[in-house]
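Q: Predict the assembly, please.
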Amino acid sequence: MSRFSQLFAPSTVVRAHCDIPCGIYDPAQAQLAARTVARMVELIGQIDASSSAVADRNKFVRCVQVKEQHAELVKREVQVIWSDYFKPEHLVANPDLHTKVWNILKLAGKNKQSIDADAAAQLETAVKEFADIFWSTKK
Amino acid sequence: MIPRSWQAIRSGPWRVAVVEASMRPAIEPGDWLLSDPTVRRWPRRGTVVVFREPGSEILAIKRVAARPGEVVADVPVTDPDSGEERRVTIRLSPDEAWLVGDALDASVDSRRYGPVALDRLVARAWFRYAPVRRIGRLLR
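A: Predicted assembly structure:
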């Protein structure tokens, strides 16, 4: 069977997306997405703004596209953990949880609408804080 | 119809591995399937398809429950302003399909994220080639 695996294993994984096994929540995805947004802002900053070269415009468009996708991913990952994982008892230790999530979602939107290194850094910080709260509930 | 370049078709996927359980019992986590990435329209109802979930980059696998132009009845929705739950009827536009997992209680599908546009369709899954004892076509 392992020889078979070597020869025939698929390289593409598809998710029969399911609520039950997704009980394995992890804010790491959101953190990675926020990191990606910040990295894209960095990369965009390195492109010569006055350049009309096709290669530069191509890179710019692709970076903006990835920034958009990953800002959306931050929103979705944070929202799923907030709505599906957190329970009322967690609010006792973290009474401002809802406000924090609200702010993350707004920050993600701001990062879509602008190319702003500060906003990107704020997003990373806010998502890290959210992740810390998540892990604190696991103790 | 969405034109797909030959490059997109060449890059496949022609084989996929399934994780998670929302298509049980027809498809089990760990199954390896042959897929056809040359599909250019939503296939017939009952066909298993691979697609990108709306709003994310997750590559998912579900069954076509309704095709473009068809009507999906009795969909539970929550009014975003009042929080009130209602049931609505949705008419699919010319490029949308309604995709649902077989394990209804567990599946995250169109009932959660709505109709799926044709440009999210990646492939049609048609045959299970592993595990060997379960080799065979995927039935509608």
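The CA atoms of residues 22 and 105 of chain B lie 8 Å apart. The two ends of chain B are 23 Å apart (CA to CA).
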